[in-house]
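Re: [help] complex structure
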Amino acid sequence: MNLPLYDFLPAPLWLINILHIVTLSLHLIAMNFLFGGLVVILLGRIDDRWQNPAVQKYIKLLPTAMAATITLGVAPLLFVQLVYPRQIYSAAIVSGWFWLLIIDAAILGYYCLYVASFKKSLSSSVAPLLWVVVGTFLYISLIYNSVFALAENPDLLRSLYTGEQSGWTFNPDIVSWIFRRLHVVAGAITMGGFFFGWVGRNDNSAYRAGKQFFLWGMAAGAVFGFVYLFTLDKYLLLFMRTPAIWALTVGIVLSAGALHFYFKKRFIPAPIMVFVSVIMMVYARHQVRLLHLADSYDPSSMPVQSQWPIFAVFLFFFLIAIGLVWYMLRLLLAERSRGE
Amino acid sequence: MNYPFWDIDIGYGWLMGSIAILHVFISHFAIGGGLYLVLAEISARKLNDTFRLEFLQRLSKFFVLASVVLGALTGVGIWFIIGLLNPAATEVLIHHFVWAWATEWTFFLVEIAAALIYYYGWKTMSARNHIVVGWIYFGAAWLSLAVINGIVTFMLTPGDWLQTGNFWDGMFNPTYWSSLFFRTGVCVMLAGIYALAVAAFFKPDKAKSSLIRYNTVWAVVGLVIMAPTYQWYFNSIPEAIRTTAAKAMPTVISRISEGWWLGLALTVLVILFGLVIPRWYHWVVGVVVMVLGFLVFGEYEWMREAIRKPYVIYGYMYGNAIEVSDVGHLQADGMLPHIAYRTGDDGADLFRRACRSCHTMDGYKPLKPKFDGTDEAFIAAMVRGVGVMRGNMPPFVGTEPESQLIAAHIYAQTDHRPLSEVFGLSGVALGRMVYEVRCGTCHQFGGYNDKAASLAGLSDDDYNNLLDMAGELANEMPDFTASDEERAALIEYLKTLPEGGAR
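Output below.
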């Protein structure tokens, strides 16, 4: 029986990769705003913490940031599943319960955020709620890191499944993901410092706290990142031969540049540099995945049956969506500023 | 069979349902609620009705909390769960419909942004701009439904796509439009009954009565759209599927009629308390109406999922992720060489691939009670003949030795005592049980594949001959391998069948 095949890519691989990398970068930025900002609020040296206008403003923004994190997280998950379904679903199944609990954790974290942001006046009583949010984020990122690392190790995946099929298996190859995870967490705190200082740029203690986390987070992220590179072991040399090494270099330089402009309170070049550096890091990560899977799977070998008319529909509505969001934000902000 | 199998005690149906049901209700409510908010706001502003405007503002807070948080995350949850429960089907859907999903994501993006701006804009935006944002919200939410509806209906009625593989054939499949209109009705109905439930808590006065009447109109309009479009939807399902359901799925058919009765009860209740005596719209009525509304919609969703059996994508992939196009070569090669993730226990691996997506041994749709007190040869024969059992089971696509491996795996978990001991029965009662266990799965008296007419009124010798040659009557028939005691009890029972088989 000649039924339609499904082993194909509905667009050239490069296009899917670009969409994945860009949308994942946007997701990471929203997530870092939220998670990193919370860490700064909870741990930073901020005068009169809960009455500080920067803290109050930031907390009001958090549910929106959460909505952005989730919404922007859907697209990269879609695109990465399109290219690596067998690796990702398999790893997710082996850690099935941990994977599924991500949804519960996200719901819990989201509602805690709303409870905190709906409070008429902030006090130290919101701290436990915010810590719960931080905890849920740490859980979610832990599972993501471990599952995606497992997806890149087919031999380990098979042996883990042979031993246990109930979905309660956690990736035991800690070295493969712990430093990347620490790098990601440090990166999120770096960005949180950046955003918090930006939002609180008119408040000395808020700006100072943001600056400290931006600086030391970046230093810690760099250390963990380098250690992670060395844990790549045999893949390190291969990695050095890919364009990703240049992307990584550009990312590091741009991060340092962002730090420079941020310290000078120049808030136009700094975020641009941060955004581009995130894209570079995500691209480098993408190359690492390709290297890990090179022996078992080459996505470029997948036949391409482009669905251009439908892609055009997507592109059309994507542009409309950006336009509409911009238009609605303009309506909201214009009237709000008139009101003020 | 490219994936590991998530072997959990909870039935896949329950797990899927627990996330999907919640999401489906919230997402439909979110669409209808969007339309309700914007139209109610226009009307309230025209009338300068501050009571209603405050009510809408409160409603929109809940709306954000329900749709933006729970709706969005359970939507992501559906993605997570389908990838765990049936990754192969998810892979098919993603490869064919990724741009549809991506397009839906753009609507989702607008929907979430608009919901938040609408909520935060109550006090800061002008009435006109606020209403514009409300319309944008509703438009994006409904378009999101229009896209997802294509993928959901595709799974039951892929239509010409099975021949062409063309995206548009799959998207605008035979049940697309009827389902879209029906779901639009559901959205309106859910918005109405939710707004009714909230208003039910207000103290009884003129303003409440007016609000209750207004909300009732929404619920009734939704129900009025739902009734004909439901029938339209059902009629758009290819006749072959409906015929199989009518013949072999009595539960599906009874759910359909239950749905109609529940819908009628809901309409009567809503009209009575909402239009005739709105002052009496107590919160208990609000809750009952809401539960009824969910049940009506739930019956539809349940029917849609159940009638698709034995497929997950009709005519393309079975519920156990076996592709229809693979049946031939799997029957020749066997399943084992094609199972990518093996555990070393072949029986268990085969059982997972062939049966476990829909059955557990002890919990959800359990197999143990069906095979307690039987034997390996009988179980193996049942496994091999599973495809003709009720017309809603996938065929067994492995080899004979593989069916024996599955049988051994199942048998090891069953009660090995004779049926008389397992159930404490003897005589005709034991015979009836023997019939139910060994024959009744495929031949229901008064139901599917009824053989009562040809079984009634035979002599002992005829019954014995029939049982001796049972395995030769048809390819899928098992040999009669029960004990002499069970054989005698079965014959005793068959002799009680009335002449002609009428019961």
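Residues 230 and 345 of chain B are 47 Å apart (CA to CA).
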